Amino acid sequence: MKYDELKKILKELSSFEQLKLYSIPDIDLYMDQVTTFVEDKLGYLKRNEDDNALTKTMINNYTKAGILMPPNKKKYSKQHMILIILTYYLKQILSINDIQRLFSPIVKSINSGENHDKDLENIYNDFLNIEKNEVDEFVNDFHSKLKSKYESENGENKDEDDGINNLIVIVIMLIIKANTEKRMAEKIIDKFFNNED
């Protein structure tokens, strides 16, 4: 039954362990250690098992694009790791150029010698709180939408003859919401994160 399968997918989507700040190594890591760490901790987010969560090429490209500071003696700090993890999430929706514009003020000041450990840690902790709240809110909202589509008023499952049509409508609903939120994020970046600053 599609309704039960959708509830199972929803449960899987919301059953994950957040990568807390204290779990990010405080010691500098070589690139291989960075890719292994990210694969180990964020691999569950991959759509396909064969995909790579992070590759050496990606890290090099992020550095060239200005999303990351250059490594110090081929080692990556906790600041690098935070930016890499945030980039991993953001690149699912935003272009690399938009991510660069977003992180540019912090990366430029770190490159000029300013210490932004606390700023990045605060951003990361805010990210974790937002992620938890948004996932919880999404699960509750989506579950109630599923319920209205697939359950009658007395709680019994409705006939699923139009199951494929319901699934198409559900996917369209999710994409419209995601697209609206993406456009808002892009407008904020365009308005407040100019490369000329």
UniProtKB/TrEMBL annotation:
<protein>
    <recommendedName>
        <fullName>DUF1836 domain-containing protein</fullName>
    </recommendedName>
</protein>
<dbReference type="InterPro" id="IPR014975">
    <property type="entry name" value="DUF1836"/>
</dbReference>
<dbReference type="Pfam" id="PF08876">
    <property type="entry name" value="DUF1836"/>
</dbReference>
